[in-house]
Design goal:
The protein has 81 residues and is of the alpha+beta class. The chain has three helices and two strands; from the N terminus they run H-H-H-E-E. 5% of the residues are buried.
Length: 81
């Protein structure tokens, strides 16, 4: 679980609350966001994905279930091939 907490911590460091609020509003407040644009988000977890592929090749859907946020629980879905 440490590797998931690692990404969660990285996302929290670069999060933008104003953008997160507007993203949530756009999605009718059904989801919570960090407010990180896709290019910046991809760059942030690129090293993690590279290391995971080296350890064990990943295919399909990779789910990071990050819990214990101050605003509640949420899911991050990424399609990895």
């Amino acid at each position: 679980m440490d590797k998931y907490r690692f990404i969660k911590d990285k996302f929290e460091k670069i999060s933008d609350r104003d953008k997160a609020d507007s993203m949530a509003k756009y999605m009718r407040n059904r989801f919570q966001f960090y407010g990180i644009p896709s290019p910046k988000r991809r760059e942030t977890y690129k090293e993690f994905i590279r290391e995971e592929k080296r350890i064990k090749p990943l295919t399909g859907i990779f789910l990071i279930n990050a819990m214990e946020m101050s605003t509640g629980s949420f899911n991050i879905w990424c399609w990895i091939t």
